[in-house]
Write a structure and sequence with these properties.
- The chain contains two helices and no strands.
- It is mostly helical and 48 residues long.
- The longest helix has 21 residues.
Length: 48
């Protein structure tokens, strides 16, 4: 969600064209899904 916030800020400050934002938001969402999947498959570590 942090990346989406940064994209919104960039758009508000006119560093990012509005037409570019949807593709970047989709890329962020896909990265989030991949990371969530990896975390779900990573074995939980117990304390030392």
């Amino acid at each position: 969600m942090e990346a989406e916030t940064q994209l919104q800020i960039a758009e508000n400050l006119e560093f990012l064209e509005a037409e570019t934002k949807p593709k970047l938001m989709e890329s962020c969402a896909e990265a989030g899904r991949v990371l969530s999947g990896l975390l779900a498959e990573t074995p939980k570590q117990t304390g030392s």
